[in-house]
Amino acid sequence: MIVSILLAAGKGERFGSKKQFLTICGKRLIDFSLKTIEDIPEIDKVVVVLPEENIDLEIKSKKEVIKVVGGDERQESVFNGLKAVNKADIVVIHDSARPFATKEMFLEGIKNVREGWDGSITAYKSVDTLKKVIDNQVIQTLNREQIYVIQTPQTFKYEKLVKAHLNAKEKSILGTDDSYLMEIMGYRVCVNKGSFLNFKITNPEDILLAEYVCEKLLKKDG
Ligand code: CTP
Ligand code: MG
Fold it and tell me: Cβ contacts of residue 176 below 8 Å, gap of 6+?
């Protein structure tokens, strides 16, 4: 059993509104990911995590859909999603704020976990040089060959991700992604192929890029 948890319970503080419900190219942002997930036969069920005040939101999918209320932090929203999944072998976590994740990203993650990895996260090698800077002073230059930009979908063995979340809760550890919680457990996580175009809509200017990409993709598909 493979379940996907689609996160849509954020407040969009940096963006200025709940971006997941915004419409681009005539479609709500959340519906881009719902459609991609719907087209993946390997995924049996979708858990959509929503803000309490939006729990009645209409969700269209041919898959079985469970709606749950999120928490104040992304990590809590994932945990609420995990609790709503009774039984699963594999769970795929995805941010609804990334409308351009592809079917291939989901499938490669699922394949990697089926082949024995505890987790597989979508990533691409950084094209920019990254440096550690503290108080405006450059401390260290990271080896770009080993630096990856991390995205979602992130695919995990269900039982291990639950254990990783329980451990984080017990120790009050808050991570920006689920993979971090797995890593500190010593679980083995690999990467699957991501893309710059799978960017996360975070700030208001990102919507311009999203509209542009969306129009180009529509033209390509149709
Ligand atoms: N998310 C969630 N529950 C939260 C926080 C975030 O489900 N408590 C979801 C968001 O809806 C988004 C994804 O996690 O799809 C990535 O989070 P982010 O881009 O940080 O979105 P927001 O938290 O909404 O934005 P901000 O941090 O600017 O408030
Ligand atoms: Mg956030």
Answer: 74
pLDDT of 221 over the 80 cut = no
What's the gap between Cα 8 and its chain centre? 10
Nearest to 191 by CA among 206, 177, 171, 209: 177
Q: What is the DSSP-derived secondary structure letter of residue 23?
A: E
Question: Checking DSSP bridges between strand 45-50 and strand 2-7, what pairing results, if any?
Answer: parallel
Q: How far is the CA of 88 from the centre of ligand 2 (A)?
A: 26
Residue at 95: amino acid letter: D
State yes or no: pLDDT of 86 exceeds 90: no
Ligand 1 pocket check for 10: Cβ under 6 Å: yes
Instruction: Give 195 or 216, the one with higher predicted confidence.
Output: 195
Share of the chain above pLDDT 90, in %: 95
